[in-house]
Amino acid sequence: MEVVPLDSESAVADMAAGLLTALVSRRPDAVLGVATGRTPQRTYAELARRASGAGRSLAGVRLFLLDEYVGLAEGDPAGYLATVLREVAEPLGISPDHVHGPDPSRLPESAEEYERAISDAGGIDLQILGIGSDGHLGFNEPGSSLTSRTRIKTLTRRTRADNSAFFPGREVPRHVMTQGLGTILEARHLLLLATGESKADAVAAAVEGPLSASCPASVLQLHPHATVLLDPGAARGLRRLDDYRETWAGKPEWQRD
Ligand code: PGA
Questions:
Q1: Mutate to test the pocket of ligand 1, among 12, 39, 184, 195 (most ligand atoms within 8 A of CB)
Q2: Is 90 exceeded by the pLDDT of residue 135?
């Protein structure tokens, strides 16, 4: 695992946007797995800024959602498909036809169909990930099978509280559909972004703790190419922080993506 402690939240967004820009220049029809939530918002904005500054079209890129709420009305602005269309696809100039998400209105068959859609697209080149304060990855809450596939899950009380700001004046849904941990592990490159002290314990458990369903994000340890970008708050709990800094600083440019 490549652990990169950075100086600020905007440095995390800069480096993530740099990795994504390098990928889409190499592969204009790249398949990106997109996370929602607060953390990656600056990365998407920075990616859009760089693409428009360079006059680069991202129209060939295909987007696959990590997860979705169950039980929202179609087109509800808090739904993740609506969020990705509005906050990622539109600013990047990616057509809605290139945006795919699990369909919570047709469970359980839509879970398997989503897995098939990902593999029909050739698999995910790069999966952007956040981490829950409880260590969840996607919406795979603690206790999730490390080999799980796309399916319905129940959110923990903590995750519903963390996400309440996205549902002002109403309840956060209890159920979600999420790519499984086994699904996530099949992406060719995993890019985990974490910012803020509220993530420090979860990051430390994921990076330095045992591989365990109690911290679903610890599955990153099983992946041959996982990159973890951290701001100082999120990196605070790491015992080997100085080692990660030194290793990263010593890496030649060509090894950094
Ligand atoms: P956040 O969510 O980016 O809003 O903190 C991350 C997650 O729940 O995976």
A1: 39
A2: yes
